[in-house]
From TrEMBL, chains A, B:
Belongs to the DSD1 family. SMART domains: D-ser_dehydrat. This is Alanine racemase. Residues 254-368 form the D-serine dehydratase-like domain. One of its GO terms (biological process) is D-serine catabolic process. It comes from Pseudaquabacterium pictum. The keyword Lyase applies. InterPro entries: Ala_racemase_N, D-amino_acid_metab_enzyme, D-ser_dehydrat-like_dom, D-ser_dehydrat-like_sf, PLP-binding_barrel. Keywords: Lyase. It holds the Pfam family Ala_racemase_N. One of its GO terms (molecular function) is D-serine ammonia-lyase activity.
Length: 382, 382
């Protein structure tokens, strides 16, 4: 009997050998560059994964929600950076977590929030460490390294004893797909964040933390001079978007969705499976990349790639699996989809975006090296 | 104090007045057409909503997962159709639910499953009612009304005492956007399913159930001759996709995501909010429609539309809110986004696809007619 046969479908399967390879590879790389790794746990939201990251040498964690912070703290993990610009209304929760023992650092990029933080800290008699978010790629939030606002923010936060440093995330790295472009983006991210730190210091302000990172830049940087820590998240599981970016292969992807064939449209060459977008998520991150995998790349139940087979369409609980001879390594189309993938066949679908697919599940079925399964729950919601 | 001020963001807010309007409107419409309504509860996955649907006259429920069936049964709701082609491995769960008191009907469109059902029922000494899925629009699964396979399936299921009727879902109706096209699709759905029933009956096979439906066709059908029941789901909440299809207005949308402004990129006219794709889902259903709302249409905290403001981009916990003067009713762009939407502003974002957005949350904050909030949990996962 196959070890996954005991699972109902759809189910999230995590290949622990691949996970551990990905975790060790990143830790070794960042350690070799001489800086700390602070993993972003928004991908796994799972204590078993976070504990392995810390055991390998990670120094603290990055979270995307205060719920993740709360759950880390409950597990004894105290060094936590909440890397979403703080909404002032969340400051009481931040303070409560700090008073329960979390060394929780927060983020802002605007004076309104900085002033709200200052007032709050004054009233509460506590200094909450704050990083200034730096915009190094114009993809989202943050202040420009050369801006006057950077120094205004630095002064405002320092006045309340809260200034802890600078942080950036070059999310634009997801649009890169050559080693040269990735290295250039990594250097742009590093140089912009370090420049912001140097300007703060030149103005007489403290800037102990210089935090950069994204999985593509973390795996492409050749030097991290001036940086104190790297954050990255999706590297733990990897996904098809990262394979298209060029920082992993499909065989590195640790997360897959186990699905069962429930029918066919033989004339159209389709197999229908019982995993739709509710299981895969609606993420179509590979749509604009070199290889569009639809809703995912199909593998057999052992996780071996079935080149050419992709989930070409999805409804809530239905996935349409079809063969595309134009996909890399696809070979010739099968004569008969009903024979190729009979009803009851179990498949594993690799996700476009692991963070989004993982979030559709309450937890993972961790397929361990010895073939046994463990239940690893997730910290979903807020 | 605003009733929603007590909520942390992001949060799923359900406007109960709009919900009840939507529920009553559909029930009246289907009742007036002389057939039963069997709501698809995959949108809400919420007992409080389902109970209101039943109180208004719904006859049984449709589910997308066996977990929904299990939860309904636990609440005393027994008349249940599981409207995803059955994976034979799920038959023991189906049987267990039936033996616990569920009148659970299942679905198939292929002989392999029909034979598996027949064998299983023979061994277990129980007949499980099965509907044959009919393909009336080539969008997904099902057998053609004129196919030989239809009769083969009917005979196979009848031999094991399981044949209960036919079911179709014209999901292609989501691509329609004129009353004429919607009415034509509703008639295509009706006619195809009724034709399949007639062919079965002409072959001497029983076909008591003739089940059709999708929200667009249910709200557009002008006659349902030969149909016994209509299924529809998203009508309960409505969404921007349905508004583009033309079967509701934006003011009918009952679900929104409460979010807080956390910063700006003033030169780009952006406000950043603390609701990203983790809250909205990655569903971009309006991308291919007449009006592309990005990740959602922005409203103020009272749910009033802010024409022109949409969530134009999203990362995991960040939403980018921008102004698009080309959107209907937008008027002129504001001179300063920082003044228009200051840090701390609370907004409510209407979703592209309510089923997908709702699934990102553990439950709803139901905003009742008297302004109070109730917690309505969801039945997530499988």
């Amino acid at each position: 009997m196959h070890p996954l046969d005991i699972l109902d479908t759809p189910a999230a399967v995590l290949d622990v050998a691949r996970l551990q390879h990905n975790l060790a590879h990143m830790q070794q790389r960042i350690s070799a560059l001489g800086v700390a790794l602070r993993p972003h746990i928004k991908t796994s939201k799972c204590l078993a994964v976070v504990q392995q990251q810390l055991a390998l040498g990670a120094q603290g964690v990055t979270v995307s929600t205060l719920k993740e912070a709360q759950q880390c703290l409950a597990a004894g993990i105290t060094d936590i950076t909440y890397a979403v610009g703080i909404a002032p209304a969340k400051l009481p929760q931040v303070l409560a977590l700090r008073r329960q023992g979390a060394q929780l650092t927060i983020l802002t990029d605007n004076l309104a929030s900085a002033q709200a933080i200052g007032s709050f800290c004054q009233v509460q008699g506590e200094a909450i460490p704050v990083l200034i978010e730096i915009d190094t790629d114009q993809h989202r939030s943050g202040v420009a390294p050369e801006s006057g606002l950077l120094l205004d923010l630095g002064r405002a936060l320092h006045a309340s004893g809260c200034l802890a440093g600078v942080l950036t995330h070059a999310g634009a790295s997801y649009q890169c797909n050559t080693p040269a472009a990735l290295q250039a983006m990594a250097e742009q991210e590093r140089a912009g964040c370090v420049r912001a730190a140097e300007r703060l210091r030149a103005a007489g302000l403290p800037c102990p933390v210089v935090s950069v990172g994204s999985t593509p830049t973390a795996l492409s940087a050749t030097r991290l001079h001036g940086v104190t820590e790297v954050r990255a998240g999706v590297y733990a599981f990897m996904d098809l978007v990262m394979a298209n970016v060029g920082v992993c292969s499909a065989d590195d992807i640790a997360l897959s969705v186990l699905a069962t064939v429930i029918g066919h449209q033989a004339e159209r060459g389709w197999a229908l499976v019982d995993a739709g977008w509710m299981a895969m998520s609606r993420d179509r991150g590979t749509q604009s990349q070199a290889c569009d995998y639809g809703y995912g790349q199909v593998c057999d139940a052992d996780g071996r790639l079935l080149p050419g087979w992709v989930m070409s369409g999805a409804n809530q609980e239905h996935g349409i699996v079809g063969f595309d001879a134009a996909k890399p390594g696809a070979g010739a189309a099968p004569a008969d989809v009903v024979q190729a993938l009979p009803v009851g066949t179990r498949l594993r679908i690799l996700p476009n975006h692991a963070c989004a697919t993982a979030a559709q599940f309450a937890g993972y079925h961790a397929l361990q090296r010895d073939g046994t399964l463990a239940d690893w729950p997730r910290w979903n919601h807020w």
